[in-house]
TrEMBL record:
This is Formyl-CoA transferase. It holds the Pfam family CoA_transf_3. InterPro entries: CoA-transferase_III, CoA-Trfase_fam_III, CoA-Trfase_III_dom3_sf, CoA-Trfase_III_dom_1_sf. It comes from Frankia alni (strain DSM 45986 / CECT 9034 / ACN14a). SUPFAM superfamilies: CoA-transferase family III (CaiB/BaiF). Transmembrane segments: none annotated. Belongs to the CoA-transferase III family. The keyword Nucleotidyltransferase does not apply. The keyword Zinc does not apply. One of its GO terms (molecular function) is formyl-CoA transferase activity. Its EC number is 2.8.3.16. Keywords: Transferase.
């Protein structure tokens, strides 16, 4: 068995990054992926990143608009297990690839649709331009710049996030269709094909799930700022002008950092009152930041890096992408692969980010002219028994949730592991959070904790006691999956390493997340998301020649959690064949490479990836963010028609905003505008023309004139935007302590029976008794375990 998805056929009819990369994840795990390209399009016409996301695929030239091509497409659809598309709704309708139409003709097919913008929103028919998606999703508005205005993102993070979420949803849908492979209670479902929608807005909502969770009275950092939100968790400039990210996310870590900095006195500053969380209150954090900034400015980066690291405080230098790529951490994780391309010579591309111990999926080739095959010759042979294993059963009305019947144990903390369980719960699995007596330290961030644990069950088991461990082993026997993101060494200490667990339950799939992987100097050090942003070059690329700019999105936590969820689902699919589980390993390093996958492709002559500036608003005068009298607007003209429409809207005489117009009327060279710099005379004229409008008015007016445009929403705008409510991106949950909370509803929309999680996050030990009773433990036995402190339960108030 070489790959988990051996024999699974994927038709990749995508046009942009997200679809191609979702299919890549399946190809990496052995799926037979056929990528359709319009005739005349070369394998690398999609840019250097295609070397990564079209690897391990066969390429087919196919003209969907021509009768012969359309007939061939229909034949391929009938032979495929999965179709991946990422076009706009109009384009799908035109080509007969809309979910309803395709599913009606091919009820067993999984239709994965990855539009950048959610089709239900008014901007669903806008072009798939990251500038627009980042604007409406609040990614730009919340990406703090140093003077508080929105930033255009230079890395297509939404598309990368969407790709791995999409792959994960397909992986769940395949299990739902083909059965998850018997063994425990109620495995599999009678599900057949599905239509699954994962938009770029699902991805940005995932990466902002913590900040989009909202409850009355919740305090958030008042000024995001380009360097980070609070004194304990932000960038500081050192005396050698290099930047260091201080990642003291918890109070104990912050106290240690203050010790290193000899700055305990900040705890007595006004409003701090000895509590780190108070520094999030308006006006309280800024003077503390100033004190820490002054201290960091006294010594060079290496000095602080050494002291903080020796004291166990997570920290990282802001590096360039090149430094990260060339360093030993990326290499030791197998993420820098060198291949000889038949046309380009040596190329470097990201490696496999998810490693399955038993089914590694070893096949590897790059997209080149040699990867083309004739569409007529594809899938003409009888269907392989891809779905061998448990029979899918006949459809019985609406299919069950894709992962119904699967039990997942999550021993992780913070976000990078738990987001994997968040996804598995979203797809219908039963998730049990297993906490030690100390509990998950992330619980101090109450709303964020809710975001990643809603609807889960909770048991407290002390794995450092013999009875606790014995009880835990019984729990492991009942489970399909276990995952965590603890530090290296912890697993062996508490007996949760794969070798120990596999001896107890050979069917178990174990997901293992670490920060830095093994065998490199960082392996033993703790990590949080922004440290990866700093080391990987993400924030240096965004800041350009200016100060580095942190993303407020949990790019790597969500990336890593999604990667491990995908690997787990692939391993469950492989388990259907022989009933055996395996270990799935991924790292935050792997995620940091995949979340800049295209940027990390290297070959001779490749154009340099985009670089921002710490006040970066876009790349041309007609493709950038503009301030309005209230709010901002994203203008995304990329064709001569768009530019001409912009001139018509704002040319001399029209002046809809009451401003001076572009000037020159018909004399304005629309095509030249497409190349006009983002800051210059043309941009100034557009700024003046928009100055009399609000962001929403400007967006409406431009869109009506035929210029792609959207309002730039901030967090508040996103939370209250009626279209997001209509698109079902958010929902409400009643939390016993916090009251009604707004939360991100789910990370994929499904045809048929979607899971609707309405329960809050559990307190520690909320389900201890129920879970143990389910394992067959008597009341007396449970009482003994409680008395011995081997397990704990939540005392009802
Ligand atoms: C996230 C961490 C910094 C958290 O560090 P810690 O709080 O110190 O936890 P550790 O993982 O190191 O270890 C957990 C400790 O709890 C103990 N432990 C755990 N479970 C149990 C049970 N059930 N019973 C008894 N003891 C237990 C375990 O033995 C360890 O103690 P000892 O035996 O005494 O050692 C680290 O786990 C880490 O770097 N993980 C890898 C990277 C990662 O996932 N980072 C979080 C990203 S999320 C993020 O960035 C964000 O939230 O933002």
């Amino acid at each position: 068995m070489s790959g988990a998805y051996d024999g699974v056929r994927v038709l990749d009819a995508s046009g942009a990054i997200a679809g191609a990369m979702a299919a890549m994840y399946l190809a990496d795990q052995g799926a037979d992926v056929v990528r359709l390209l319009p005739p005349g399009r070369g394998p690398l016409d999609g840019g250097p990143g295609a070397l990564c996301w079209d690897r391990n695929k066969r390429l087919c030239a196919l003209d969907r608009a021509a009768p012969a091509g359309a007939a061939q497409l229909r034949r391929l659809l009938a032979a495929a297990d999965v179709l991946v598309v990422d076009d706009t709704p109009d384009e799908l309708d035109r080509d007969g690839l809309d979910p309803d139409g395709v599913r009606a003709a091919h009820p067993d097919l999984i239709h994965l649709w990855l539009p950048l913008l959610a089709p239900a929103a008014p901007w669903g028919r806008l072009p798939a331009d990251p500038l627009l998606a980042d604007a409406v999703s609040s990614a730009s508005g919340e990406h703090g710049s140093y003077d508080g205005h929105p930033l255009a993102l230079v890395t297509p993070i939404a598309a990368y996030g969407q790709a791995i979420l999409g792959a994960t949803a397909v992986a769940a849908a395949l299990l739902g269709r083909d059965g998850a492979g018997g063994g425990g209670a109620g495995r599999g479902s009678a599900g057949r094909g599905r239509a699954v929608l994962v938009s770029g807005l699902h991805a940005t909502a995932a990466m902002q799930a913590a900040s989009l969770t909202d409850a009355e009275g919740i305090i958030r950092a008042s000024q995001p700022g380009g360097g980070g939100s609070s004194p304990n968790y932000r960038l500081y400039r050192c005396s050698d002008d290099r930047w260091l990210y201080l990642g003291a996310l918890t109070e104990p870590l912050f106290l240690t950092a203050l010790d290193v900095l000899d700055l305990f006195e900040v705890l007595t500053m006004p409003g701090v009152d000895g509590s780190m969380l108070n520094m999030l209150r308006p006006g309280v954090g800024a003077p503390v930041v100033a004190r820490l900034a002054a201290r960091f400015a006294e010594r060079p980066l290496a000095h602080w890096e050494r002291l903080l690291t020796d004291a166990g405080v997570p920290n990282a230098p802001a590096q360039t992408r090149d430094e990260w790529w060339a360093g030993e951490v990326v290499a030791s994780n197998g993420m820098r692969r060198v291949h000889v391309h038949p046309e380009l010579g040596p190329v470097e591309i990201p490696g496999d980010p998810v490693r399955l111990s038993r089914t590694p999926g070893t096949f590897f080739h790059l997209p080149s002219t040699q990867a083309f095959v004739d569409a007529a010759a594809v899938w003409t042979d009888p269907r392989p028994a891809a779905a061998a294993g448990e029979p899918a059963g006949e459809p019985t009305g609406e299919p069950a949730a894709p992962l119904a019947g699967l039990r997942v144990l999550d021993l992780g903390s913070f976000v990078a592991g738990p987001f994997g369980s968040t996804l598995l719960a979203d797809y219908g699995a039963e998730v049990i959070k297993v906490e030690g007596p100390g509990g998950d330290p992330y619980r101090i961030y109450t709303v964020s904790f809710l975001a990643f644990h809603k609807g889960q069950a909770d048991i407290v088991v002390d794995l450092k006691t013999p009875e606790g461990r014995e009880t835990f082993h019984d729990l492991v026997r009942s489970a399909d999956v276990l995952l965590d993101n603890v530090r290296p060494g912890v697993r062996e200490r508490i007996g949760t390493d794969y070798a120990t667990l596999a001896a107890i339950n050979p069917r178990l799939v174990r997901g293992t997340v670490t920060a830095w992987g093994t065998g490199n100097p960082l392996s033993a050090t703790p990590a949080f998301d922004p440290l990866l942003q700093a080391r990987s070059g993400l924030i240096t690329a965004q800041g350009g020649a200016g100060a580095p700019c942190q993303s407020a999105m949990l790019v790597h936590d969500i990336g890593t959690g999604s990667l491990v969820a995908f690997g787990i689902l692939a391993a469950l699919y492989a388990r259907r064949r022989d009933g055996l589980g395996q270990e799935v390993v991924t790292t935050m390093v792997n995620s940091s490479v995949m979340m800049q996958a295209g940027e990390f492709v290297h070959h001779a002559g490749r154009p340099a990836p985009a670089v921002g500036g710490h006040e970066y608003v876009g790349d041309t005068a007609v493709h950038r963010l503009y301030p309005c009298k209230e709010g901002w607007v994203a203008v995304a003209a990329t064709t001569p028609e768009h530019a001409a429409a912009l001139v018509a809207a704002f040319g001399e005489g029209s002046e809809p905003g009451g401003g001076p117009g572009l000037g020159g009327g018909s004399e304005v060279d629309a095509v030249a505008l497409l190349r006009a710099p983002a800051r210059g005379p043309a941009a100034e004229r557009i700024t003046a023309a928009l100055a009399g409008l609000t962001g929403a008015e400007a967006a409406g007016l431009l869109a009506a004139a035929g210029v792609p445009a959207a309002p730039v929403l901030d967090r508040g705008g996103f939370l209250t935007d009626p279209w997001f409510a209509a698109a079902g991106i958010l929902t409400r949950i009643d939390e016993p302590d916090l009251g009604p909370c707004t939360v991100v509803r789910r990370y994929a929309d499904w045809s048929g029976n979607p899971v609707e999680i309405t329960a809050a996050a559990p307190p520690p030990g909320a389900d201890t008794r129920r879970i143990l009773a389910g394992l067959g433990y008597s009341d007396d036995r449970i009482a003994e375990l409680l008395a011995a402190g081997a397990v704990r339960e939540h005392a009802a108030p």
